[in-house]
Amino acid sequence: MAVAASAAPGALGTLQASRARLVAACCARLGPRWRLPGSWTCPRVDSTICARGWTPAAGGAAWQRGYSAEVKTEDELRVRYLEEENRGIVVLGINRAYAKNSLSKNLIKMLSKAVDALKSDKKVRTIIVRSEVPGIFCAGADLKERAKMSSSEVGPFVSKIRAMINEIANLPVPTIAAIDGLALGGGLELALACDIRVAASSAKMGLVETKLAIIPGGGGTQRLPRAIGMSLAKELIFSARVLDGQEAKSVGLISHVLEQNQEGDAAYRKALDLAREFLPQGPVAMRVAKLAINQGMEVDLVTGLAIEEACYAQTIPTKDRLEGLLAFKEKRTPRYKGE
């Protein structure tokens, strides 16, 4: 593809070269052993069995893996690796009840470390982001902490929030935000970074930053228009309007809306149902499908189709593809290994 692009004259050659670079960059996101069609090879799967839990190592910033079913990073973020029929599903549970799950420096640091560990864990198939505080998803940035910052500190702090949310958006596996309560400002931006959003009808969602004479700084001005369209996104940001679950569903902000149950976790239960639907599918296919969609939506159709071709090519040499064909022939459930 790159050779053909370099040989093409003028503007057409420039366009084709640009597309080739975008496709190459897309393949690079898959890892060092992925190649463009014609030179691709199957990725080597690490023979080390990934642990299903991780905890901070004693006395330092480095993290180490463990084997507990539930791991606590202090108490503000709980990471649970589900077992048995839910194996492969990881739940990130935010637990800052006293601060309405607001995004503090510490919580942002813990979320970043959690995401960093999850993105390289081949055993992880789907990630659910939820709150463990009834009635709250995330109230946004910790404004009490923000009030103590100097003007020179605010920008770097917001950059860290944006970077953490981008890390969630760039996770290679499907992500689901389970919104069972209030999701304002950075809390909604966190949900917007997930692939799928589900909410209880009683949940409240909005980008309300203009009320504070600022704008959304965690990706909201970019992801909300991509989710619901530019005009409506402008209307919601300009007005700082807060939507309930039914309203959010009607404008396309969320995929599913549920009546809240007595336990207060209707959205989480729906997210878990969706995650279970994803589990039987081929792990490599799920990752490259997400990449093809995400990258393709940012470019023109022709380049997007080239990205799809490159991503499809990565599934051809996999053992999982052969297993899928064999299972179909033998009329049984495939046993995919992510290889």
Automatic annotation (TrEMBL):
PROSITE patterns cross-referenced by the UniProt entry: ENOYL_COA_HYDRATASE
Source organism phylogeny: Eukaryota, Metazoa, Chordata, Craniata, Vertebrata
Matching Pfam families? ECH_1 (PF00378)
Q: What is this protein called?
A: AU RNA binding methylglutaconyl-CoA hydratase
* Subcellular location field: Mitochondrion
Coiled-coil annotated residue ranges, if any: none
Instruction: State the PANTHER family in the record.
Output: ENOYL-COA HYDRATASE-RELATED, METHYLGLUTACONYL-COA HYDRATASE, MITOCHONDRIAL
Which one GO biological process term can you cite for this protein? fatty acid beta-oxidation
| Main location (coarse class) | mitochondrion
Q: Which GO terms describe its cellular component?
A: mitochondrion
* One function term, GO molecular function aspect: methylglutaconyl-CoA hydratase activity
The record's section on InterPro entries has: ClpP/crotonase-like_dom_sf, Enoyl-CoA_hyd/isom_CS, Enoyl-CoA_hydra/iso, Enoyl-CoA_hydra_C
* Similarity comment: family membership: Belongs to the enoyl-CoA hydratase/isomerase family.
Give the UniProt keywords, A-Z.
Answer: Acetylation, Lyase, Mitochondrion, Transit peptide
Q: Which domain of life is it from?
A: Eukaryota
